TrEMBL record:
This is ATP-binding protein. It comes from Nocardioides imazamoxiresistens. GO terms for molecular function: ATP binding. Residues 1-22 are annotated as: Disordered. Residues 170-303 form the Cytochrome c domain.
Length: 403
């Protein structure tokens, strides 16, 4: 097939040509937007799941839905050991700019901008890395509002900031939506402050929602930060695609190029990808390039499989393995060996220690380092699992003798 016409798009957060299997989540969010804009009570949303299942893609699609309804939106990506105050200042600035130009009262807009500026300037003192953000030209002539959103108490400042920007959006019959990717990387104290602010805003009925996305342990992290977090958000698990939706992800883009698949080819593609969206796109792309003619058949998938596996090994899996220290790699290899017994599911940390002939306490630095790097997560107390699907299989099949 002509590689220039290849319709598949494997990439980090890159929207596939056919966003299959996510209609229910998109429809649910449309209802949320309608209800919040109408002043009806509705919870913020949290997406959670393994890496490669399309959480970021879905998060971006939800943001697009909010933009289409003329909401003010902003997005941040949380990072380990980095405070969120600076990033929230930037995201809310973007959201305010999206609604401010439609407002008829410039003094009202300047008042909200002054609160935003006071919150932003407070990052100089409050950001844990000592960084500060000086608002650009759009706020350069605005006077910061002293005594509003600048106390240094993140939860109090967020409540005041969210209240004011939500009121500005309410004047226009819309709302504000903040999107947070990698939400599990937010510091526990800051996560608690964010939950507290969302709780207060919800009680006010203010038209502002937060949509977070993160790894499978994100719901547990939120519950640990605030006891009421389990009732504060609508939790949506983002998982692999069922067979019919994976087929749709392959056949609809191909049909747009006048190409079809034989049923046996689709069955084999699903067998090797198990419906994980990133793998669906990766195998689809390589299979297209390997196919000699229409329709794409089983032999094309089989011919393409080694190249697809090699590309995943170099990129999706390999770069993550290389980020780990030697001790962390030993820990992951032990996990992979033991995961054979659990169907590549969670493994008991005590079993890993026995497998390595070590005391469990001595392995804590390696485990904690892997959690911090987002390579594993604590499925439940005493259990550990990979955040990346098929990673255990990759480690068992990899020649590790030279690494």
């Amino acid at each position: 097939m002509d590689p220039v016409r290849n319709p598949y798009a494997p990439g980090a957060g890159q929207r596939p040509p056919e966003l299959a299997g996510r209609d229910r989540q998109l429809q649910q969010f449309e209802v949320t937007l309608e209800r919040v804009a109408a002043g009806r009570p509705e919870r913020s949303m949290v997406l959670y799941g393994l890496r490669g299942v399309g959480k970021t893609v879905l998060l971006n699609a939800l943001r697009s839905a909010a933009v289409q309804r003329a909401w003010g939106t902003g997005k941040i990506e949380a990072r380990p050991d980095a405070g969120i105050r600076l990033h929230i200042a930037q995201a809310t600035h973007a959201a305010v700019r999206e609604v401010a130009h439609r407002h008829r009262d410039p003094d009202r807009v300047d008042g909200v901008a002054g609160v935003l500026k006071s919150f932003a300037l407070a990052t100089r003192q409050a950001d844990r890395q000592g960084r500060g953000w000086v608002p650009g030209a759009h706020l350069s002539d605005v006077v910061a509002t002293k005594g509003r959103a600048d106390s240094g108490d993140l939860e109090l400042d967020l409540v005041e900031l969210f209240t004011d920007i939500a009121d500005l959006a309410r004047d226009l019959g819309v709302g504000i939506a903040l999107f947070i990717d990698e939400m599990q990387d937010i510091d526990v104290a800051e996560l608690a402050a964010l939950c507290g602010a969302c709780h207060e805003i919800g009680q006010q009925g203010a038209p502002l929602i937060v949509v977070g996305a993160g790894l499978p342990h994100l719901p547990a992290a939120l519950a640990a930060s605030k006891s009421y977090a389990e009732r504060l958000f609508a939790y949506v698990e983002v998982d692999r695609l069922p067979h019919e939706m994976a087929e749709r992800a392959w056949t609809v883009p191909a049909a747009g190029e006048g190409v079809t698949f034989e049923p046996e080819a689709l069955a084999e593609l699903y067998r090797v990808t198990e419906g994980y969206p990133y793998f669906v796109q990766a195998y689809g792309k390589v299979t297209w390039d390997a196919a000699l003619a229409d329709p794409i058949g089983l032999s094309d998938v089989q011919a393409a499989a080694p190249e697809a596996e090699a590309e995943l090994g170099r990129g999706f899996f390999g770069v993550r393995y290389e980020r780990a220290t030697p001790a962390e790699r030993d820990y992951m290899v032990a996990m992979a060996d033991l995961a054979v017994q659990t169907g590549d599911g969670p493994v008991a940390t005590a079993e890993i220690a026995r497998h390595l002939g070590r005391k469990p306490q001595s392995l804590s630095p390696a485990r904690d380092g892997l959690i911090k790097k987002g390579l594993v997560y604590s499925a439940e107390r005493g259990q550990i699992a990979f955040t990346v699907p098929h990673f255990a299989r990759f480690l068992r099949g990899r020649d590790l003798s030279t690494t």
